[in-house]
Automatic annotation (TrEMBL):
HTH merR-type domain span: 1-66
Key word Transmembrane present: no
Family matches, as SMART domains: HTH_MERR
PROSITE patterns registered for this protein in UniProt: B12_BINDING, HTH_MERR_2
Domain B12-binding: residue ranges: 174-291
Stretch forming the signal peptide: none
GO MF, any single term: cobalamin binding
Name listed for the protein in its UniProt record: MerR family transcriptional regulator
Highest taxon of the lineage: Bacteria
PANTHER family cross-referenced by the UniProt entry: MERR-FAMILY TRANSCRIPTIONAL REGULATOR, REDOX-CYCLING DRUG-SENSING TRANSCRIPTIONAL ACTIVATOR SOXR
Record key words, sorted: DNA-binding, Repressor, Transcription, Transcription regulation
Record-linked Pfam families: B12-binding, B12-binding_2, MerR_1
Classification via InterPro entries: Cbl-bd_cap, Cobalamin-bd, Cobalamin-bd_sf, DNA-bd_dom_put_sf, MerR-type_HTH_dom, MerR_fam, Meth_synthase_dom
Length: 291
């Protein structure tokens, strides 16, 4: 436990500021000793540190408080759910295949409800959804699932991810990141997952979607506030177009960080940041780089 004097010193603000943040915004609400003195536990100090960090970054105090409370609520929800999704415990990775074969849209909705209620968004996506979509793609290539069935599942997943993206909320003062696929590339579900995770760590993504022409990329990064570009190379044939976009970004905005994900990110230009293959870790890495 911290007294108000020690909490203020740990956070780097005055005792009067701590009282004001508590009174006006409910940030860092302390416990009380038997004598009535304020006592701050570790969770309260972390909340105050988040508030201080946002204010130092230039957020208006009221907006910083709202963002701090949003992050606390998200973290509490994540803590309440299992943090690691186990396919062995919660279902197999082939669960999407029979739904595609039978065109079972209600069954798909029920399955997604069950999965996303079972663990954090990042864990479900990394440990179940993306691998399961890979199994579905393999079944389609083998002729075990029709084009229509594969599309039904993909569209259902896209709708669910779009809801999650909107629910994550936009951080109005977070680092702006343009996220999309290069011209001709269309497999964007993984990138939509990443954009959602980016919102959840306090970034402000501008999700452009798939098949974005190079000239549109240039318009998207023209605002001075854009600090990073994230592309993906899900297929080897996407690499040439990705190279063209990356070169154009580097020529137009050399100050912008260029990051690449997807199965073939290792073949991207050497100066690009490789995000790896887990969207939760990738979003955290990008947030750290832009802090």
């Amino acid at each position: 436990m911290f007294t108000i004097k020690h909490a203020a010193r740990a956070v780097g603000v005055s005792e009067a500021t701590l009282r004001a943040w508590e009174r006006r915004y409910g940030i860092g609400s302390p416990l009380r000793s038997q004598a009535g003195y304020r006592l701050y536990d570790d969770a309260a100090v972390r909340a105050l540190e988040t508030m201080k960090h946002l204010v130092d970054e230039g957020w208006p105090v009221k907006s910083a408080a709202e963002e701090t409370l949003r992050r606390l609520a998200r973290d509490e929800a994540d803590d309440a759910a299992p943090q690691h999704f186990s396919p062995e415990e919660y279902g197999d990775l082939d669960a999407l295949v029979p739904l595609a074969r039978s065109y079972d849209a209600p069954g798909l909705d029920d399955l997604l409800d069950e999965r996303f209620a079972s663990a954090s968004f990042e864990s479900v996506v990394d440990d179940w959804l993306l691998p399961a979509l890979g199994r579905l793609g393999a079944a389609w290539e083998a002729g075990e699932v029709s084009v229509a069935g594969e599309h039904l599942v993909s569209h259902g997943v896209t709708r669910r991810l779009s809801v999650a993206y909107e629910a994550a909320g936009d951080a109005p003062f977070g680092a702006q990141v343009a996220i999309g696929l290069p011209p001709g590339a269309r497999h964007d579900l993984g990138l939509l997952c990443f954009a959602t995770a980016a919102r959840r760590v306090g970034l402000a993504p501008r999700y452009l979607g798939n098949d974005v022409p190079t000239e549109d990329w240039m318009r998207a990064i023209s605002p001075a506030g854009v600090r990073a570009v994230v592309l993906s190379a899900p297929l080897r044939e996407d690499l040439e177009a990705l190279q063209a976009v990356v070169d154009a970004v580097r020529l137009t905005r050399p100050d912008v960080l260029v990051a690449v994900g997807g199965a073939h990110q290792g073949d991207a230009p050497a100066y690009c940041l490789r995000l790896g293959h887990r969207i939760g870790d990738a979003a955290q890495e990008l947030a750290v780089r832009l802090t």
